[in-house]
TrEMBL record:
Name of the protein: Pseudouridine synthase
UniProt record similarity statement: Belongs to the pseudouridine synthase RluA family.
Gene name, Swiss-Prot/TrEMBL: rluD
PROSITE patterns, alphabetized: PSI_RLU, S4
Organism, scientific name: Candidatus Erwinia haradaeae
Gene3D superfamilies reported for this sequence: Pseudouridine synthase, RNA-binding S4 domain
Cross-referenced PANTHER family: MITOCHONDRIAL RNA PSEUDOURIDINE SYNTHASE, RIBOSOMAL LARGE SUBUNIT PSEUDOURIDINE SYNTHASE D
RNA-binding S4 domain sequence ranges: 18-83
Keyword RNA-binding: yes
Active site: D139
Lineage: Bacteria, Pseudomonadati, Pseudomonadota, Gammaproteobacteria, Enterobacterales
Amino acid sequence: MAEQVKLYAIIPKLELGKRLDQALTKLFPQYSRSCFQRWIEKRCITVNGVIIDKAKYKVFSGAIININTTIEEKKCLEASDIPLNIIYEDEHLLLINKPSRLVVHPGAGHINDTMLNALLYYLPTLILVPRAGIVHRLDKDTTGLMVIAKTVSSYNYLVAALKSRMITREYEAIVVGCMTSGGKVNAPIGRHATQRTKMTVHPMGKPAITHYRIIQRFRGHTWLRLQLETGRTHQIRVHMSHISHPVVGDSLYAGRLRLPKGMPEYVIAVLRTFNRQALHATMLRLRHPISGMIMEWRSCLPGDILELINAIQSDTDHTAVK
């Protein structure tokens, strides 16, 4: 379905000399700049009755703007009735606790079964917000907290806050090996040269920094709390693998299963059947885009990771008794 859009405005003095697309984004913050650029290209916008087809057109104060167009919902952005675990909502943002197996954005093999499709079903007006309001991603098999912007202005604010490192994101993970101390991984990440679904540490990659500290050590594993300073694709998974402590269950970066000698069979069974990376986004802290209030949310570890922790704890206890 197409939504009819009719807008009218007079350019104020503050916007004098700005590009048309920039001025319109200020006047109508519910729509994105790229949206206005498309409408300009489609010749849907007039200034003092004259059609303008260049986004770089410089506006002048007192000019009368008329916009008459439609918004078409793209096929790849279909709404799907997929349950969302919403832990907070107001007029400007949503906080979602993402489950495992839920892909965030549509792509090859996932057209109508993603979080984006679920968001459009829950709140159809998100079709007007870039990426349906999704500010940052979690991998398909990573669980935990994600923030969603409900308006274009909130989206722009949160994306800028993420870039300037004003949003704090903490994770918990179970990694292979018994680590002796916390630390920091400062290693650039780029696309793997031959395996295009993988990322890798590479000197020509983008800067990437991950901080980690130990929550608990086990005989052959470590429970970590991690904080992202940057947000590269697969960052925690790549960095932990890079320092030879890959995330348990990570089929892409962990390699073959490594088991300490003498591990009980039932613990081995838990490790063998743990079929996703043991990584959960536990905490999100940000300044609210409108009120400016510092807000923080936390999410408990899901049941499968707790079961994994119990199993490797019992292996540690079993060895201590022996």
